User: What shape does this take?
Amino acid sequence: MAFAVACAGNDSKPIERSGGGVAAAKGTSSGKNASPALTRKQLEGAAIKSGDVSGWEVSVPKSSAWPIGGQRMMADKPACQPIADALSESGAVKAVAAVERSAVAKDRSGVMVRIRLASYPGGGAEKVMSGLSNADTSCKGFTGTGNGVRQHMEVAEYGGHLTAQSSIALRLTTRIGQQTVPVYLDAGRVGSSVEYFMTFNVTGDDPGTGWTPAEVQQHVKLSAVH
Assistant: This one.
């Protein structure tokens, strides 16, 4: 998922929670009784596909074939690294399997959701969400670099609606050329997995929320296998 906004158009024609600051993850657990990490095959079965979401076209982006741990955005501020990791294919906590999907609204509005499902062993999913929660104390923005791309991100909370076991909801703002693009990042833990949603409009318009039918249906499918 790393730098999907900057690379818009590479994977498909359209392309891949309240008060200021970063939202604290809600409902975290100790991970002592964490469920087993899902395999790639199980994640593939849990990922949405064409026909699952009315009014949305779902595809598999090219980046889905990349090896686990192959792409990572590095933040210039250590406190912001968990957020940069949430935008990446790799992070401080290593996933054992991951899949990605792109969902594009068919109404020609330009709204797109990049989805990443990742499974973690040994309480890793809780560690990911804890890192995102801890980022709220000091991360208001950062510059991320990697894979030949450099992006500055402003960071703020927004009122997300993802009903996972723990979740965060962030509104990121970045510039692509001369255009300012709002990006909504929702992440939530479901058992040993974390679901990441990055929602934006390819026209640069503000979609206003990351809460879409694609996110709703993906959460339902992932929850069903845990």
About this structure: The longest helix spans residues 213-225.
